[in-house]
TrEMBL record, chains A, B:
Annotated site residue numbers, Cleavage: A178, T179
Family of this protein: Belongs to the ArgJ family.
Protein name as it appears in the record: Arginine biosynthesis bifunctional protein ArgJ
Catalysis performed (reactions): L-glutamate + acetyl-CoA = N-acetyl-L-glutamate + CoA + H(+); N(2)-acetyl-L-ornithine + L-glutamate = N-acetyl-L-glutamate + L-ornithine
UniProt feature coiled coil, ranges: none
Family annotation (SUPFAM superfamilies): DmpA/ArgJ-like
Positions annotated as active site in the UniProt record: T179
Binding residues for substrate: T146, K168, T179, E259, N378, S383
Enzyme class: transferase
Length: 383, 383
């Protein structure tokens, strides 16, 4: 159930002293081939961390042979020194593997504006390389944890091939920017172009729709590497379906581990004029602190849902909106319908359904509630 | 220091039993002329409350002779019955004053989806009318309070004329949607067209730049009425300046009264290519839960500031941004500069300055911090 489940990969994770906790903080995942096709998506934030600036160059040619990751420092806004540290780490990995640094993706997570100890990182790379093994995925997954309460991994089996992955990120409710790092491995034979198409399709409906607090990381990186070691070439639809299933599994693991959250909220917008409208509406609700506070207070406050819908440019009639919470239609035709008292928000899972009655498209966006005292101010009033 | 400070206005506030607390909940402000020019701005939310739908028709001709307001229920998403309640209230006021209901603005605040007791409202209107007096501004101001800890009023004196105002709203951190209601009175002679121009200019740089949690109300209404009782016609620039001063004073009162807040944060963006860019950057930072959480934790986390700037479309070079907190330039050229330890966030007032180095425009956006446990998750990490 790790990045080393697919054939053709080795990994390891070690403690290099970057984390004050003394826990594992450097991970290395190596693709032993025979193919080295890859695809990567990065954060859309215009303020990007040094590892992202470096890795954007690495992935340009569709070839990635290794990914080295560290927790204990995001190496973001650390200036030229910071970029040189990222470069040095890639060179160190390349030297050990006898490859070019330009084929080594680097990922970092932790505080912004904090320079990593270059020598400690390089020593960590040495140790991680020595320990590389075909069953080292678990150690690697543990080494990229920051505020994560559990390592996050997933595997999807194809016919004769598989996809494995590890992820870090405690939802966007996590301290700092909840840098989300994901390394995906597969032993299927998939070209870089097909990997790119599949990865963008998969992330568009999974990670891209996880929006715990609207804050966008400077370090987010999702890299997939194909070793081709199974010798099997799945159809692109089959591979895309498997990859989407894997990314959704990981996204739900991130959602469930979101710090300080009491509820996981799935917001589904129905009958939208376009999928974009459905996502805009869902994201607007997901970013309403007042709505999220109400959920924490177990208050089925559909008024806050409609108020969020009203801030969007989506097509709908403000006088004819329906809203359900946990399946109870508390609002129909923009007027009170079922008794909100019928909505039980005591469980962790919450669903919100908005019917725009403007088309046939739909989309689901996931978020968490806002918990504790700030929320108290917003949740105590109407309860 | 009230809406009855300017000549030509009477007001009163009474308890009509709409508030469970038994406090005052119905307010009436009447313009006795000789002029009845007015201007109003409403919430931009597409999901508007019944009083807003009604009042949009009332203000269309630039004439308003009275404003009746109630707390204890927003009368939003209450269907045709709710609209009929708003209409009945306007008719009741009109009947007492011998005017047309179409000259009566109605404002409501409280829970969305909650129908107001029509008879209680009408009885409240009767009592408020009986008590109307030229020094009833204070009672009116108290009757529109919801979670406000203090009534909010302001007066600006011109030469021979004055502007008075009352406002309710406990910042957008308040329960529900912190409906912001403002009634402004002046005895200056100002045409409806000039009032509209002055009001839009004043609110654009005051209320419109107060963004405590990004949630937009369904009921926000700001109405200005000119009685012309002073017989003096100020220049439009003079009147606009005074009105802007008044609205900014009220906006700061709302900011300071924001529920659950420990800090008032003024975010100033310098050297932007356009004022719109400056506002977009300020608003993005103001809406970052992580940044606001850090301020609560007294953590001068400029990384979260840059991460928010990076999510905007404003013109800037991500590699050359400067950030100061409370006057300390903690980041220059997008790299660490002064020791963040020099930033003292123990006081309530916090300033954040971002230099985009892209032009000559500037703007300030005001917000509050995110407090307590949710924030704890975000503020404890780097401290």
């Amino acid at each position: 159930m790790t990045v080393t489940t697919p054939q053709g990969f080795r990994a390891h994770g070690v403690a290099a002293g970057l984390k004050s906790s003394g826990g594992k903080d450097v991970a290395l995942v190596v693709n032993d081939g025979p193919t080295y096709d890859s695809a990567t998506v990065f954060t859309a934030n215009r303020c990007k961390a040094n590892p992202v600036l470096w890795s954007q160059q690495v992935v340009a040619d569709g070839t990635v042979r290794a990914v080295v990751l560290n927790s204990g420092g995001a190496n973001c806004y650390t200036g030229p020194e910071g970029f040189q540290t990222t470069h040095a780490v890639a060179e160190q990995v390349a030297g050990h593997l006898g490859i070019g640094a330009i084929d080594v993706v680097v990922c970092s997570t932790g505080l912004i504006g904090l320079a990593n100890d270059r020598q400690a990182l390089l020593d960590g790379v040495d140790a991680a390389h020595v320990g590389l093994s075909a069953d080292g995925g678990q150690q690697a997954a543990e080494a990229i944890m920051t505020t994560d309460s559990v390592p996050k991994q997933a595997v999807v089996e194809g016919s004769g091939w598989s996809i494995g992955a590890m992820a870090k990120g405690a939802g966007m409710l996590a301290p700092q920017l909840a840098t989300m790092l994901v390394v995906i491995t597969t032993d299927a034979v998939v070209s870089a172009a097909d990997l790119d198409q599949a990865l963008r399709a998969a992330t568009r409906v999974s990670f891209d729709r996880l929006d715990s607090d609207g804050c966008m990381s400077t370090n987010d990186t999702v890299t997939v590497m194909a070793s081709g070691a199974s010798g099997i070439t799945p159809s692109l639809p089959d591979f895309t379906d498997a990859l989407t299933q894997l990314c959704t599994d990981l996204a739900m693991q991130l959602l469930r581990d979101a710090e300080g959250s009491d509820h996981d909220i799935a917001i589904t917008t129905l009958n939208a004029a376009s999928e974009e409208d459905a996502v805009e509406v869902g994201r607007s609700i997901a970013r309403s602190n007042l709505f999220k506070a109400a959920v924490f207070g177990k208050d089925p406050n559909w008024g806050r849902v409609l108020a969020s819908v009203g801030t969007t440019q989506a097509a709908f009639d403000p006088a004819d909106l329906d809203v359900a919470m946990n399946g109870v239609w508390v609002c129909k035709g923009s007027t009170p319908h079922a008794d909100p008292g019928e909505v039980d928000l005591s469980g962790r899972e919450v669903t919100v359904t908005v019917d725009l009655k403007a088309g046939t498209e739909r989309a689901t966006v996931w978020t968490n509630d806002l918990t504790h005292a700030y929320v108290h101010e917003n949740s105590a009033y109407s309860s």
